[in-house]
Amino acid sequence: MVRKSTHHILTFETSSDTDIIDITGEVLDRVGESGCRDGLVTLFVPGSTGALTTIEYERGVINDLRRAIERMASRNLEYEHDRRWGDGNGYSHVRAALMGPSLSIPLLSGKLTLGTWQQIVLLDFDNRPRQRKVILQIMGAGRIPMEP
Amino acid sequence: MVRKSTHHILTFETSSDTDIIDITGEVLDRVGESGCRDGLVTLFVPGSTGALTTIEYERGVINDLRRAIERMASRNLEYEHDRRWGDGNGYSHVRAALMGPSLSIPLLSGKLTLGTWQQIVLLDFDNRPRQRKVILQIMGAGRIPMEP
Amino acid sequence: MVRKSTHHILTFETSSDTDIIDITGEVLDRVGESGCRDGLVTLFVPGSTGALTTIEYERGVINDLRRAIERMASRNLEYEHDRRWGDGNGYSHVRAALMGPSLSIPLLSGKLTLGTWQQIVLLDFDNRPRQRKVILQIMGAGRIPMEP
């Protein structure tokens, strides 16, 4: 048997309304522990009010991103979702659908191929604090030894 | 020989102008039939006027998403693509490029890692009904048995 | 030993401010050379001011996409990133985070599953010319022969 894949379920406590969290450290730790040197790292956020992307994790540009998202799907518009269900988080769903829930990053020679100023961020758009999960999957690649 | 991957070409009939279809059921059926328990599910829409994302498939928020996309790339703007080619679907191409054609979802213990209210949707932005394909690829992970 | 994965680091010279480059030819060449017939092709752009998507690579619609991105995160707004760091490329970071750095495309029977008019594009949002890398990873799938 040759283990060629592993996964982790990462957990984060988020605050309400476009919390943007740097999860790079957790991802790098788990990738390092996996012993996998070459492969594909997939990140996925279960739930319909969260998203994943990469950005330079610097407070100024994180606020700039928040403002851009507010322009795209403002909290102050009327949402049909809210009229039907009363959750008040129609804007959260729309933002999450626009940004997308998945991210794929090749792993080469034991290093994630992120740029120097590029961090992995979890965006939580919900209108209340959440305990948010991120699935981290590491699929090994490279040569498969035929003998264990 | 060990089968470690399988794919399906799903087909959907779409109507014109931002048809948003819940394709979760079809995806779950094929993943179930594959017998694969752990791995990576990749979805990809061939064509330059379609996209994929996830959202809670509820009529209100689907309409809210449509409105947000209309704000991002309104059908009523002038598009250089239309002046050059006369297709009238310049807005469709722009929307598809902004939303993106691919989605990656880990499969763990036989279950796609979607949230409870999170469905997979195909967005067709074209200005005429289409027969639209989605490529579903299931790459097995987990342990590879050395004996068949 | 069975080679089940390969990668390439593609390099592109970009010009400043939303350069959009068709990289499909390079990707197809490397996939062809890999000899891989079935699998998953992952593309990833290291760096926090670049992105990847697909679009019909036609000058009109490329300009239309540029205009849509300018509406989403205009160069003429004030960015907190610029006030703090003076780089003048706050808009570049925001655009890259909104568009996303990764793309996943299944490879079936030796062919990438792109549509006829669908090209892979690298978007460089930075405010100066760059030498930009794109990671191309090809993970083989299909049957794994047990004998070399």
For the record, what CATH class of chain A applies? Mainly Beta
Largest interface, counted with CB-CB under 8 A? B-C, 39 and 39 residues
Q: Measure the end-to-end span of chain A.
A: 7 Å
What is the radius of gyration of chain A? Answer: 18 Å
| Residue share in helix of chain A | 25-40%
Shape of chain A: elongated
β-strand percent of chain A reads 35-45%
CATH fold-level name of chain A: Jelly Rolls
Order of helices and strands of chain A: EEEHEEHHHEEEEE
Count of discrete structural domains of chain A: 1
Q: Could you report the average pLDDT of chain A, rounded to the nearest whole number?
A: 92
Question: How are the strands of the largest sheet of chain A arranged?
Answer: 2-9-4-6-7
Task: Say how many strands of chain A there are.
Answer: 10
Major sheet size, sense and barrel closure of chain A: 5 strands, antiparallel
**CATH second-level architecture of chain A:** Sandwich
In DSSP terms (H or I, runs of 4 or more residues), the helix count of chain A works out at: 4
Which spans of chain A have pLDDT < 50 for at least 5 consecutive residues? 143-148
User: How would you classify the helix and strand content of chain A by structural class?
Assistant: alpha+beta
> What is the quaternary state of this protein?
homotrimer
What is the CATH H-level superfamily of chain A?
Answer: YjbQ-like
